[in-house]
Amino acid sequence: MYEGPVQDVIDELARLPGIGPKSAQRLAFHLLKVEKTDLERFASALLALESVGFCERCHNVAEGSLCRICSNPKRDPSVVCVVEEPRDVIAVERTHEFAGLYHVLGGALSPLDGITPERLRVRELIRRVTATGPDGRPEVREVILCTNPTVDGEATAAYLLRELQSLGRDDLSVSRIASGLPVGGDLEYADEVTLGRALAGRHSL
Amino acid sequence: MYEGPVQDVIDELARLPGIGPKSAQRLAFHLLKVEKTDLERFASALLALESVGFCERCHNVAEGSLCRICSNPKRDPSVVCVVEEPRDVIAVERTHEFAGLYHVLGGALSPLDGITPERLRVRELIRRVTATGPDGRPEVREVILCTNPTVDGEATAAYLLRELQSLGRDDLSVSRIASGLPVGGDLEYADEVTLGRALAGRHSL
Q: Do B187 and B198 touch, CB atoms closer than 8 A?
């Protein structure tokens, strides 16, 4: 319908998830009005994405073979935080509460969608946990299961717990992040499952 | 927060209207997974936008000095349909009911937002309407005011009607698109203003 280049940009934008043809059209008309340098910067940012791959160790996004976190010598390699997606790494990093390494599964178990343990990076996690360090002993001593507190995430955490326990390592501690009321939340508006978890997870003062 | 190239794409996407940082992050992670050729096609589509300008005559988007409609000899130059934006041209074109030319105002009058007649292409419209053709007579004989049936669009149409009438051309017909119930609509759910317009604009059978 539109002049060639305008229609091309509309088509490309409409290919993005969650952007329909109407939004794509609106965005394309916005891009028609921006400076040429802005278009060039946008285009080169897209091309630079080609150089981004995944970390060999933790499968987070990485420019080289290791991500910034895995290649940081100040991080503690004995603690591994298992998350579903690279964006969850950023969420945990923002807390500034975690100094260990990550393991990105690439999703959560969801048999109905065909996401079985083989589709996630479970084998790679087991390999990391069983690998021995320079002193001949297993390097990883703590695994924090940090998948989402959703049905799929909980199932994934339960599955990983079983797998890790079946390794028979007494010196390995496996934990799960706490569920409860969000800070600033209100008892009145909390759903009963969350409030139940908050009660079950109470700690003495 | 993210590796350089990922953050760059997030920043570029978040600069688009209606796309917040969370959506930009989601889209960037989608783009991380697509084929390299798809990224390259997207980037070159953006760069090709640089070649798109605006039609000298009607101010629609155009690759050359005239848009596809203005450069089509089969279109009737004596009828001009005045619209607010280039996307409205497409909307009218989709009806296949109009064979004349367009005039894109670039918006609608909105004094509160500082959109005065000087900010729109009103002067250019008047110039087109008063311009004489090869036979020495004014070429434009009909103007259809096709601005949106919103407060701003109606005010713009009223303003343009006054301006066009003040030209004192008896042979110029000026019309306004009809308001009424949309086809497939339901009287029960129509707002009273629309239904009132539909009644006022009734035609005998």
A: no
CATH number of B4-51: 1.10.8.420
The CATH class that applies to domain A75-176 reads: alpha beta
Spell out which residues of chain A touch residue B18, defining contact as CB-CB under 8 Å. Answer: 23, 26-27
Judge whether B117 and B159 are in contact, CB under 8 Å: yes
Architecture per CATH, A4-49: Orthogonal Bundle (1.10)
Q: Is the pLDDT of residue A47 over 80?
A: yes
Question: Which residues sit opposite A138 in a β-bridge?
Answer: A132
Instruction: For residue B87, give the nearest of A16, A29, A62 by CB distance.
Output: A29
Paired sense of beta strands A53-54 and A61-62, if any: antiparallel
8 Å CB contact of A5 and B42? no
Q: Look at residues B109, B146, B119, B141 and name the one whose alpha carbon lies nearest to residue B128.
A: B141
First to last CA, chain A: 68
pLDDT at B3 over 80: no
Q: Would you say residue B124 has pLDDT above 90?
A: yes
Q: Of B39, B51, B61, which has the smallest distance from its Cβ to A47's Cβ?
A: B39
Tens of pLDDT, residues A69-104: 999 999 999 999 999 998 899 889 988 889 999 999
Nearest Cα residue to A6 out of B31, B15, B56, B50:
B50
